[in-house]
Design brief:
Length: 362
């Protein structure tokens, strides 16, 4: 018998293979469309509390470089751009930015319990800081807030900036850090504190974290990174404690909050959970961020939800005991944080973890 005679290649035998091929193509198309949706709705940057801030591009640039994680560990979805920079934080920023080696000497007596102890000693080893209590300089004062003048001194030493022959500002004459201020101005790390004229530097003004990000990007010659605008949607109604109805692209959509689960309608704490969600988001416009999956098996949007002040609604519900942590891979970016918050809520008998019932509304 010939090879051709042994090959069953009739239309009837080809049909199952054709059907299988069509199914595979449809599955791939569905995956591709979901991926495209995820890409198009990526969150607006690394943090939720700097949207639209002057320093946002600089904050994003130093975050991408690994110079900052955030200000609210372990979640780290906030940067706190308006918070004052402490001397310890400054040490950490510079030690990471310069890639300084591990410290050799313990230089100060007041940083042993500081989370920035290593960074402080790295700076001292490198000759970037001497201390905060001259002439002995046995202390660093890690929790003391930084002034703009101190920042200039740190930056001029850290980046070995050359002296300037120009007196850039009118309000630092005779100031302890005048030379350093002129050096950072010459290097275009700062332009001043009173735009548009910028004739003043404000050397005694407290530095904030947003300003610190700007100074670092200029010193490191990093380009500010403008993230895509965050997706903001109005909340139309509250379904229950973990599901809301929002308007996205002029379409009313159910949205399931990622990583949490709340009591069902037959549970005694259902009403309290739904009321807590309503108190947080009803009638508001919220920011929504995607993780990996665009929708769940019921077709609902899967999102993290944030208020305009940066409040993380998913986490807030767990923290006050109105939701439990529910990790469904691959949407697990904040799984560790949510588990930690649930453990704390349980330990404090908050909300539905109250041994006497559902507890009062927060």
């Amino acid at each position: 018998m010939s090879k051709e005679e042994c090959t069953d290649d009739t239309p009837e035998t080809r049909r199952p293979l054709l059907i299988l091929l069509i199914v595979m193509v449809l599955v791939m198309a569905w995956l591709t469309s979901n991926t495209a949706l995820a890409d198009s709705t990526d969150p607006g940057g690394s943090f939720t509390d700097d949207d639209g801030a002057v320093s946002e591009g600089a904050i994003e640039a130093i975050a991408v470089e690994g110079l900052t994680l955030g200000c609210n560990p372990p979640g780290n979805y906030l940067y706190c751009p308006g918070d004052s920079v402490t001397r310890g934080q400054m040490a950490a920023f510079l030690a990471r930015a310069l890639g300084l080696p591990a410290p050799v000497t313990d230089h100060f007596s007041d940083d042993d319990s500081s989370v920035f102890g290593n960074a402080i000693n790295q700076l001292a080893d490198a000759g970037i800081t001497q201390g905060c209590n001259p002439p002995s300089n046995t202390m660093f004062c890690p929790t003391r807030t930084m002034t703009r003048g101190e920042m200039a001194a740190f930056m001029s030493r850290a980046f070995d900036l050359p002296a300037s022959s120009t007196d850039w500002f009118t309000d630092d004459n005779g100031h302890l850090f005048e030379s350093a201020i002129n050096r950072v101005a010459e290097a275009r790390i700062t332009v001043g504190c009173n735009p548009p004229s910028n004739t003043a530097f404000c050397p005694n003004q407290t530095m904030n974290r947003g300003q610190m990000a700007i100074f670092l990007t200029r010193a490191l010659d990093l380009a500010p990174l403008r993230p895509p605008a965050p997706t903001r949607v109005p909340v139309l109604s509250i379904t229950d404690g973990d599901t809301i109805q929002v308007r996205l692209d002029d379409v009313s959509e159910p949205l399931r909050l990622i990583g949490i689960d709340t009591p069902e309608s037959d549970h005694e704490c259902f009403g309290e959970s739904a009321a807590a969600m309503s108190a947080l988001v009803a009638g508001k416009t919220v920011r929504i961020d995607i993780d990996v999956s665009a929708r769940d098996s019921f077709g609902r949007l899967l999102r993290y939800v944030f208020l305009t002040d940066g409040t993380f609604v998913n986490a807030e519900m767990v923290e006050v005991g109105r939701a439990s942590a529910a990790n469904f891979s691959p949407d697990s970016e904040f799984a560790g944080l949510l588990v930690l918050l649930e453990e704390q809520a349980q330990a404090s008998d908050r909300g539905m973890w109250d041994t006497g019932g559902c507890d009062e509304l927060p």
